[in-house]
């Protein structure tokens, strides 16, 4: 038996009973002959509570101290889990991200992993221990400050450790039974997927599917680490995410893998931009220099009479104020008319590798939205994805309509959400 990395989300370790249940599952893996490394998130809503507390103390908390605060949640989880495993008669050692050798850049609150040097983890395993690592955190390469990887960063921690330790598999335990064709909170007839390719999963994750973080899937694809998404509340087989189906499975790639939606984005429109070379470059250079990630971009056709155009793009709501401030500084230089900000939007995406060889998918997608009375504001496509922006209050109805239109509804039992968060 080889080495496995298991990651448990906040809903799996939300209370003492949950921690004891997780400890038993970990010990069972150890008894089956595996070396086990565990990555754990903060308990339940601990991270949200710490964020709220920081906001009460300071409207704009310093990045370094904010990271120091947020990493406390995972340290609590890892210590309690180690105690629970010890009670079951097995030895466990807990490690912070920095002790585990997770080295990052210096961008506080959303650092990226540069390297993983898991020497202490290997020593713990060689001594017969279970290693427990605090997810979501690391240490900056230059200043040696504690950093965090952004929300959902424990997934990335787990896959990065699996790659560094040459693990057989990275098991992501959550509060649903695997990856579904849509969010089971919105589509109760969503169907569980037995296997999905890295490419399709990356598109779903990037489009708002909450079960896996897109950075985690990127990392797994780069190092070819199979991910097994399972529920910590049941013994069901879950979903495999990999280049090829695992073991003896022969699973045909579906035409449509699923429907994802995202309500965490906002839209900015730069109105009246002079239609000449360099203006778009100036706008998006300013956005990039402020460390803001953008998603969809649409530029209108220039009005012949004025030589002006509008440029719209979507970005995380949390970055909206920073983006507006950055663009306002460009107004004298570019000479655009105004800025419009809209945070009442939602993105709906249809994902599937078979789309590119099956004509009619795009038409069917738009027809389903039309039949549901949903208006489209922006459109973006790739080889395996179609995304549109709609009004936020229409998104649930739109997702259900598209899911049904493409025959993704399950005829069996409704999907079960055990913990309520989807992670």
TrEMBL record:
<dbReference type="GO" id="GO:0019877">
    <property type="term" value="P:diaminopimelate biosynthetic process"/>
</dbReference>
<protein>
    <recommendedName>
        <fullName>Aspartokinase</fullName>
        <ecNumber>2.7.2.4</ecNumber>
    </recommendedName>
</protein>
<feature type="binding site">
    <location>
        <begin position="210"/>
        <end position="211"/>
    </location>
    <ligand>
        <name>ATP</name>
    </ligand>
</feature>
<keyword id="KW-0547">Nucleotide-binding</keyword>
<feature type="domain" description="ACT">
    <location>
        <begin position="350"/>
        <end position="423"/>
    </location>
</feature>
<dbReference type="Pfam" id="PF00696">
    <property type="entry name" value="AA_kinase"/>
</dbReference>
<feature type="binding site">
    <location>
        <position position="47"/>
    </location>
    <ligand>
        <name>substrate</name>
    </ligand>
</feature>
<comment type="pathway">
    <text>Amino-acid biosynthesis; L-methionine biosynthesis via de novo pathway; L-homoserine from L-aspartate: step 1/3.</text>
</comment>
<dbReference type="InterPro" id="IPR041740">
    <property type="entry name" value="AKii-LysC-BS"/>
</dbReference>
<keyword id="KW-0418">Kinase</keyword>
<comment type="function">
    <text>Catalyzes the phosphorylation of the beta-carboxyl group of aspartic acid with ATP to yield 4-phospho-L-aspartate, which is involved in the branched biosynthetic pathway leading to the biosynthesis of amino acids lysine, threonine, isoleucine and methionine.</text>
</comment>
<dbReference type="Pfam" id="PF22468">
    <property type="entry name" value="ACT_9"/>
</dbReference>
<keyword id="KW-0457">Lysine biosynthesis</keyword>
<dbReference type="InterPro" id="IPR001341">
    <property type="entry name" value="Asp_kinase"/>
</dbReference>
<feature type="binding site">
    <location>
        <position position="74"/>
    </location>
    <ligand>
        <name>substrate</name>
    </ligand>
</feature>
<feature type="binding site">
    <location>
        <begin position="174"/>
        <end position="175"/>
    </location>
    <ligand>
        <name>ATP</name>
    </ligand>
</feature>
<dbReference type="GO" id="GO:0009088">
    <property type="term" value="P:threonine biosynthetic process"/>
</dbReference>
<dbReference type="GO" id="GO:0004072">
    <property type="term" value="F:aspartate kinase activity"/>
</dbReference>
<dbReference type="InterPro" id="IPR002912">
    <property type="entry name" value="ACT_dom"/>
</dbReference>
<dbReference type="InterPro" id="IPR018042">
    <property type="entry name" value="Aspartate_kinase_CS"/>
</dbReference>
<dbReference type="InterPro" id="IPR045865">
    <property type="entry name" value="ACT-like_dom_sf"/>
</dbReference>
<dbReference type="InterPro" id="IPR036393">
    <property type="entry name" value="AceGlu_kinase-like_sf"/>
</dbReference>
<dbReference type="GO" id="GO:0009089">
    <property type="term" value="P:lysine biosynthetic process via diaminopimelate"/>
</dbReference>
<keyword id="KW-0808">Transferase</keyword>
<comment type="similarity">
    <text>Belongs to the aspartokinase family.</text>
</comment>
<comment type="pathway">
    <text>Amino-acid biosynthesis; L-lysine biosynthesis via DAP pathway; (S)-tetrahydrodipicolinate from L-aspartate: step 1/4.</text>
</comment>
<keyword id="KW-0067">ATP-binding</keyword>
<feature type="domain" description="ACT">
    <location>
        <begin position="268"/>
        <end position="344"/>
    </location>
</feature>
<dbReference type="GO" id="GO:0009090">
    <property type="term" value="P:homoserine biosynthetic process"/>
</dbReference>
<dbReference type="GO" id="GO:0005829">
    <property type="term" value="C:cytosol"/>
</dbReference>
<feature type="binding site">
    <location>
        <begin position="7"/>
        <end position="10"/>
    </location>
    <ligand>
        <name>ATP</name>
    </ligand>
</feature>
<dbReference type="GO" id="GO:0005524">
    <property type="term" value="F:ATP binding"/>
</dbReference>
<dbReference type="InterPro" id="IPR005260">
    <property type="entry name" value="Asp_kin_monofn"/>
</dbReference>
<feature type="binding site">
    <location>
        <position position="185"/>
    </location>
    <ligand>
        <name>ATP</name>
    </ligand>
</feature>
<keyword id="KW-0028">Amino-acid biosynthesis</keyword>
<keyword id="KW-0220">Diaminopimelate biosynthesis</keyword>
<dbReference type="InterPro" id="IPR054352">
    <property type="entry name" value="ACT_Aspartokinase"/>
</dbReference>
<dbReference type="InterPro" id="IPR001048">
    <property type="entry name" value="Asp/Glu/Uridylate_kinase"/>
</dbReference>
């Amino acid at each position: 038996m080889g080495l496995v990395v298991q990651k448990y989300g906040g809903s799996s370790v939300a209370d003492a009973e949950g921690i004891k249940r997780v400890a038993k599952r970990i010990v069972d893996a150890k008894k089956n002959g595996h070396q086990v490394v565990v990555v754990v998130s903060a308990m339940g809503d601990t991270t949200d509570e710490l964020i709220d507390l920081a906001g009460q103390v300071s409207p704009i908390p310093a990045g370094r101290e904010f990271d120091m605060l947020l990493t406390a949640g995972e340290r609590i989880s890892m210590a309690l889990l180690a105690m629970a495993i010890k009670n079951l008669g097995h030895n466990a050692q807990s490690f912070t991200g920095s002790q585990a050798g997770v080295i990052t850049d210096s961008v506080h609150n959303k650092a990226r992993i540069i390297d993983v040097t898991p020497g202490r983890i290997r020593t713990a395993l060689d001594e017969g221990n279970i290693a427990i690592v605090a997810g979501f955190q690391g240490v900056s390469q230059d200043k040696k400050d504690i950093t965090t990887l952004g929300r959902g960063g424990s997934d990335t921690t787990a896959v990065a450790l699996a790659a560094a330790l040459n693990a057989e598999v990275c098991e992501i335990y959550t509060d649903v039974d695997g990856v579904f064709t849509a969010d089971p909170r919105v589509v109760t007839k969503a169907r569980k997927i037995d296997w999905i390719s890295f490419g399709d999963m990356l598109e779903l994750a990037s489009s708002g599917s909450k079960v896996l973080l897109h950075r985690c899937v990127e990392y797994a694809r780069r190092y070819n680490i199979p991910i097994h998404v399972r529920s910590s509340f049941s013994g069901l087989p879950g979903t495999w995410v990999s280049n090829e189906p695992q073991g003896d499975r022969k699973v045909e790639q579906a035409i449509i893998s699923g429907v994802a939606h995202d309500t965490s984005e906002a839209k900015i429109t730069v109105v009246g931009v002079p239609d000449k070379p360099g203006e778009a470059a100036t706008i998006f250079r300013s956005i990039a220099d402020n460390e803001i990630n953008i998603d969809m971009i649409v530029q209108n056709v220039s009005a012949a009479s004025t030589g002006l155009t509008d440029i719209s793009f979507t970005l995380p709501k949390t970055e909206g104020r920073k983006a507006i401030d950055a663009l306002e500084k460009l107004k004298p230089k570019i000479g655009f008319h105004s800025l419009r900000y809209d945070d009442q939007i939602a993105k709906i995406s249809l994902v599937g590798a078979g789309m590119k060889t099956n004509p009619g998918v795009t038409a069917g997608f738009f027809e389903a939205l039309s039949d549901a009375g949903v208006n489209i504001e922006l459109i973006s496509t790739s080889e395996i994805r179609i995304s549109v922006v709609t009004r936020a209050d229409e998104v649930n109805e739109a997702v259900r309509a598209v899911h049904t239109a493409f025959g993704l509804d399950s005829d069996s039992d409704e999907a079960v959400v055990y913990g309520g968060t989807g992670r």
